[in-house]
Amino acid sequence: MPRMLSLDLTFDAVGTGTLADYTDSSLIVPHLREGDTAGVINELTQVLQRQGCVPDLLPFYHAALNQELLANSAQECGIAFPHARLNGIKQLQFALGRAPQPIIWGSKGSWPVQLIFLLAVPATDAAHYLHLLAGLARLGQHAELLTELRTAINADAILAVLEKSTMSRG
User: What's the average model confidence in pLDDT over 79-96?
Assistant: First the structure.
């Protein structure tokens, strides 16, 4: 049975901190093997499940993929943040994958992405979820941080970049 990854989310009700507070180096895949939406979501779901962040692989995978097919999360800056909100998820966390080359996210005509943040969202945690989405959107406005994420040499270096991305009060 996988261990439950426990992150220290000890900030106030809406949250401050950094994007790094929602992940761990064990949840970061600097070199994704998959090259399409379904494959990347599957690869990152397996990472979340191995670390004990999601209790059941298939329900989470299907929920995240279906949500992404309904509302493509690709951003013009080259990031995507698919998610699934389910009972059984204990705390808001994300796995981050980096594609070696930008991939078309979702349907043809969508923006190509290289950084994919797969969010595991507790069914009842709307406030932190919306705060994290706002933080990811702000990250997309910082070209220098995106460049650092794309060029960081390993998971620890990627995590260090995420620690620079502060979350302002919501």
Answer: 95
